[in-house]
Fold:
Amino acid sequence: MDKDTLFYDDACPICSAEMEKLAKHHDNGLELTPISMLPVEHQAALRTELHLRTEDGKWLKGLEANVRAWRHTRYSKATNLLLHPMFRWIAELAYQTWLTYYQWARKRREAKD
Structure:
C-alpha cells in the first residue's frame, strides 16, 4: 500500500458531507473509500466509527483516524492539536458525542426504511 485509506459510511449524510469537504483538500496520499464498495460482511464493523488503514497497514479508529486523514491537507497543523494532551480529552468527548448521535440517527433512518 502506498496510501492511507479512509473508510466512511456513504449512507450517512453527515459522513458524506464531511468526505466532500475532505475530498476538496486532501493530497494524493489519501484514498477515500465508501464502505458500500466493500463486501457486506466487512461493512458492519466499519460502520461503527471512522476507520483508516495507514499506508503501512496499521488501523486507526475514531478521532485518530479523523486526524490522520486531515493530515493530508493544509490543515494538518491545526488538526494535530486535537491529539495534544491539553485538547485531546475535549476532542474525544466531542467525537464520542457525535458518534452517539450518528448511531442514533442511523438506527432511525434504518427503521424508516
Summary: The first strand starts at residue 4 and ends at 8.
